[in-house]
């Protein structure tokens, strides 16, 4: 338009703008690099936080909160410098832009004045004051929009970086695409399997061969057991069969039922977890599968039966979860059944019943079994002994025993046989009643306590969150103030210039136009410098505040009592989303808060709350699905999970669209108000000049100031919706940071001289999320210093609960636990737990004691090998032995072993058990085990039933008593 009205002046006025474009491009590239670095740093810190939240019980038990907070700080620290550099570069961009803009103003005014003077003598002048005003105003509008564009460069570059990473994932094509419709579908698979010369390494450990020329033929209907030392490739064979790794051009998964070594359940109802194996299953089929898996009784005793909601992170005891996983596999009626330590987490009673059910389920179908308990595989058609990735021996149990090779030696080391005795009907029923060792609330959706109401914050409250960064806030505000003052100064200069054009003295006009251009250049330097100061100061404040609030939020989360984590609204996915996103939302609104309007709509507040809930639901599904991807792949339920996630995303989209429409109206109004201001200012100004004899210089100055002010107002109104979101986020953040654990964790008593005497006195306990279900009911138990005490009993009877109370993950509802004649609630919790876990030392010696040293030294980087997220590339036995070494390394005064050898092969179990027997001498040792062979030498064995100690004594005493312990032992008779 400038060129249309005065092409020569228009070209001169925009001549400087290419420099702005070049500067913007350069800054944009720098911002992109910095954003990439920032995203990478935040991602690494996020991985640390998620790992800690997933393993919160382990972190708390080992007094690792301070260490993990320090590790989190270490990963976060680079983000502060990066964010400050981003603000600094944005400030430099503004500096260059405003200097160019004001210099353009000055050049345009000067050259326009020269042309107007030259054309004064012309009858048809091409340049008049009106033409010059048109060019200046178009230049003004363009400059303002370019200025705002420069400010958005950072956001745009961040969006580009984020989009790039997202699209790279979307465009990634897997060699094993579970949702690919091509390929051969086996509808009537008989179950014949053949492995031919299989060589395999895990993608993340290509230098470590797992299988070496592995050959195995399995005929239809055969039951084949894979045995051998831990970490020699048994579970890998099963993963290859499921096409979790090695691709084959057949669709097997829909014909395969899998029960893994570590049962995985999803955050949903029990019925839906079982139905996950067969989406079309009826309620009757679900109940039937549950009965076969011996979990119907305990499910039916729950308040909402099969509709009870459970959490993926815990909720049920190991045995309960394992039986539900078995029911999920059986409901598919698969052609191939894979059992990877399927009964490892079951107590003696449940194991026998489930094993009988599995024996029935394996009839007429191909079955692959991986087990360390030889009693579960003696009836297999073929037993395959795997060692170092190769088949060392194979044959039936009788053939291998006659061979007297490695299997024979393994059997002699620890031979287990099933006994024909059965547990009584009374005990069967009581197991269902006692099987309530659950932590998740079956109606958590409706359990919103008042403490979880998000605080309603004002803008002043949000500013208070920036109090530690007040110096930067003051500096930034000074820059913002200078920026604001320069607009009226520009209006004054503009009005003086307009008045100058009517002066007949040409030399005076030319001289003053040059001076006006100089003043504008100086003003541009001032505005640019103020913008640089403003961007740098606010970026510094935002970066430091973000870092501080992230650490405070993370620290506060780790300081909560365990019952807080059991609640659905505090699941790992929701917490990870909360502390990552809401901090950023608070930071982004700093520039809006300073000098902005005080405006917040109730509609926006409600809309933001609904959006938050919908996004949290989607985030929880995504987080859980990624963590349990192998299970989802095994069950061939990728499409189901994707549809479930899409439904939640659609809900979030629909909710956000309502708010977006309203925000669009607000944004449009904010942009339109500028032109409304134009019309009002000029119309009313002209009226005052014509009728009230007002000085048009003053009117022009006021009009210019109001027009500039309208731009500021427009941006403030357009940002009001984000301000509402920030206030809501700040409320959630404040609720987390200010919340204090309901348990007193900072007692005054230290445990420096603790000897290890423990006394449970009349303990009654229910988990906070299920207060109506008693887990312990008047439990009394005294453990003397140096004793080894074993807790045994049916799955879910409260054995692990006793340990959690001692570790003060929870406090008893009634009764006390004395440690050295002092209540555990009086101890400083870090001091208390440190007695169970002393700081690291003698790593190699501990690894040798746990029989994991030789495995570690054979890794490429030895003890420096990084395990990665969740140590997923290690076998269950390897992870178990590393965990044992972690406990032994601290030379604890109280040693707690909760199924410590359940995932070990027989040889490793024998070695580790000997090590545990040695280290338990002279210290108090509490052992929880389903394998009675591991506890028969204990000083005291306590049999728990219905939340109380029903039998107590030494192994021989309990056998002579002829009670529940003897019946359990008879099922594990040692030969």
From TrEMBL:
Domain ABC transporter: 193-413, 760-971
Subcellular localization(s) per the UniProt record: Membrane
Membrane association type: Multi-pass membrane protein
Molecular function in Gene Ontology: ABC-type oligopeptide transporter activity; ABC-type xenobiotic transporter activity; ATP binding; ATP hydrolysis activity
Pfam families to which the protein is assigned, alphabetical: ABC_membrane, ABC_tran
Region listing for Disordered, in residue ranges: 420-453
GO cellular component term, pick one: mitochondrial inner membrane
Presence of the UniProt keyword Translocase in the record: yes
UniProt keyword annotations, A-Z: ATP-binding, Glycoprotein, Membrane, Nucleotide-binding, Repeat, Translocase, Transmembrane, Transmembrane helix, Transport
EC numbers: 7.6.2.2
Transmembrane segments: 6-27, 87-107, 127-148, 472-497, 517-538, 664-690, 696-714
Source taxon at top rank: Eukaryota
Subcellular location, principal: membrane
Gene Ontology process terms (BP): oligopeptide export from mitochondrion; renal tubular secretion; response to insecticide
UniProt xrefs under InterPro entries: AAA+_ATPase, ABC1_TM_dom, ABC1_TM_sf, ABC_transporter-like_ATP-bd, ABC_transporter-like_CS, P-loop_NTPase, Type_1_exporter
Reactions listed under catalytic activity: ATP + H2O + xenobioticSide 1 = ADP + phosphate + xenobioticSide 2
Domain (ABC transmembrane type-1): residue spans on this chain: 1-158, 476-725
Bias (Basic and acidic residues) ranges: 420-442
Stored PROSITE patterns: ABC_TM1F (PS50929), ABC_TRANSPORTER_1 (PS00211), ABC_TRANSPORTER_2 (PS50893)
Family to which the UniProt record says this protein belongs: Belongs to the ABC transporter superfamily. ABCB family. Multidrug resistance exporter (TC 3.A.1.201) subfamily.
Protein name stated in the entry: ABC-type xenobiotic transporter
Taxonomic source organism: Megaselia scalaris (Humpbacked fly)
